[in-house]
Known about the structure:
By secondary structure, the protein is of the alpha/beta class.
Amino acid sequence: MINYDEFGxxxxxxxxxxxxxxxxxxxxxxxxRGVGKGGMRIANVTMEEVFRLARAMTYKNTMxxxxxxxxxxxxxxxxxxxKEAAVRWxxxxxxxxxxxxxxxxxxxxSGAIEMDIIAKILSNKASTGKxxxxxxxxxxxxxxxxxxxxxxxxxxKHLEHNINETTVAIEGFGNVGTFTSKFLSDDGAKxxxxxxxxxxxxxxxxxxxEKLIKVKNETGSVINYQSSTSKKLxxxxxxxxxxxxxxxxxxPDSINDKNYTQIKAHIIIEAGNVPMTESLEESFxxxxxxxxxxxxxxxxxxxxxxxxxxxxxxxxPKTVIDLxxxxxxxxxxxxxxxxxxxxxxxxxxxxxxxxxxVRERLVLx
Length: 365
């Protein structure tokens, strides 16, 4: 259901090409702080899903204290249609809102290639997450995963937990899951389980992340990873593992009414967008589980987008890349700490604490 409230949404637009049967959605949720910013998701989406993602971007951009509003786009491409052609068509449709109301970015099944197409058709300011040669900061630099890692580090410091004694399970091994696992592994966390669409690989002694990345690239799935102590599980079984930290990072509602009672982790870092409903977050809060909401934990990507948007240099110099990583670490880490401190002080959930901060920073007309 699409909720109309004090935030928005301001615009809901649906596009359709009768010849190719390609469909597109765009939701501009709120532009109080600036132009609507959010990724382009290429999947079997609905307007409701795009709205929920756009709303998350309103919260995320505000929480990160960026001069962006919240927006999101979605593109459904039939199997027989060329992806590049579909993105070119969608770019032309978005001309009516870019650059005044919307700036695109990478999301599920879209990356630097698609952002380059949009920029070349419309303008360099039409999209972020472009290739370095076009002045971009592509997701291949790992900004979202870097932010998620620092959100967990801030959470563990707040809870006085040792990173070297922390076990982690991550749902999804695309760009976000890959970099999150790599950064956390480098920091000393024990990544014991990672899933993809084909299943979960579990190793109680900890996964060799570099080896797992190689296996995924060469075979197409994490389940082909092998060690003397590793086990293949189903994708769904990841959620019931006995771990300290669970990171849902795939499609919306991956934690739902059917599986939330199975979860044993006492920390949940929302690596993906809207991985569960707010009511389920409330249920975890009542059980004593610490949940860091998506718009706090995974803001690294949009912080990177802001740095790219404000530093329009071609090709992207290393100084801008370094600036982006510093901003992601500082903003995500500080905001995670701020949310946890306020939640403790006022005896409220992290979601409520974060939303109070959003309302303070988003001064509605």
